[in-house]
Amino acid sequence: MNFSGAKIAVIGLGYVGLPLAVEFGKKRSIVGFDINQPRIDELRAGEDRTLEVEPEELKAASQLSYTADIEDLRDCTIFIVTVPTPIDANKSPDLTPLRKASETVGQVLKPGDTVIYESTVFPGATEEECVPVLERVSGLTFNADFFAGYSPERINPGDKEHRLPTIKKVTAGSTPEVAEMVNALYAEIVTAGTHMASSIRVAEAAKVIENTQRDLNIALINELAIIFNRMDIDTEAVLEAAGTKWNFLPFRPGLVGGHCIGVDPYYLTSKAESIGYHPEVILAGRRINDGMGAYVASQLVKTMIKRRLHVEGSRVLVLGLTFKENCPDIRNTKVVDVISELKDYGVQVDVHDPWVDAGEAMHEYGLALTQTPETGSYDGIILAVAHEEFKSQGAAGLRALGHENAVLYDVKSVLPAQDVDLRL
Predict the structure, then answer these.
(1) Beta carbons of 189 and 8 less than 8 angstroms apart
(2) Which pLDDT tens digit goes with each residue over 219-232?
(3) Rounded distance, CA 312 to CA 342, Å?
(4) Residue 298 and residue 14: Cα distance in Å, rounded?
(5) What residues does 208 pair with on adjacent strands?
(6) How far is CA 341 from CA 6, 145, 361, in A?
(7) What's the predicted TM-score (pTM) here?
(8) Which positions are catalytic?
(9) CA distance to 112, 123, 139, 185, per residue, from 145 (Å)
């Protein structure tokens, strides 16, 4: 088996797939496939709404073409699947995008082809969930007619320093020979190097615990923040003091959303429960982090009541909707939990985020964004996301959006403690 000169197809051109396709497109023939025709049209025009890839980078990928037509995949021999793996309303893994992508690949799969998955899954999902779909649709036999690989994505949306080529890549294959080939393939584009795992299941497990570990660490800090707030101790001041020790981990409290940290632990816990083990520590961390939106809202409401501000019918401005700063990604953002809770109190909530497409906010969450907040009209202002546009205004600029007695809540602790009324 030799991948030299092989034509690649990347299935799914979102935050993960597009940067991958672009890097390969600088070196070899590749097809970027997505079922969303407007997304294909946008990329053909040299634009990326996710802002992960600059226009000049798109131009540099001279061997990359875009398509929504499955027929354009037939001469490809390597398929890399980069579709999302969300959770459903019951916080159970939703493998629908993964299964549908596997069905698509199965329709064009040929003897000798290899399918590599990058989507975050529970250990065993590639071989137990995806491969059977490939076999059923293609009529081919796994590890005889076609092969599989796994190389979990490590994309950090909005991060211009840690990019695909500079993040070490874990790789794995369904046979020792395929593992070597998959590893060599990614080594073409990843300057930081690769780590070849001993099996696909090991690689899957490694990915899912990366974010589970972060989730638990943030849950600990969130719980500490709740405790310190009750003791009237500034959490950020405590963390700064503790951080003077060389081995203290620099985590901060916050709303834990996004496509990874707030989702991946449920893939692991779901698999654990399916084999008869009920995880306690991981789920405890999830409960804490899932409850932080309601906690933020309740803290604001309590402070408003102390200031004799009438809560029902009041106006609160939420600054930021994305799951993290300086990027347009609103997937699984926990800011919506704050908004929902405030609305339950009868609060009129305006949401302002210059990074977010208004149509996407309405489609995903039914939220109509406020393009220009009314100066001096709010009873509360919540700095929910630390976009540079908000930080640059400073506390005085943000306070100007509210009336004289308004409450300013800095969820991200990016403003001086003495200049705000609440910090997480």
Answers:
(1) no
(2) 999 999 999 999 99
(3) 9
(4) 35
(5) none
(6) 52, 53, 18
(7) 0.93
(8) 260
(9) 6, 23, 10, 20
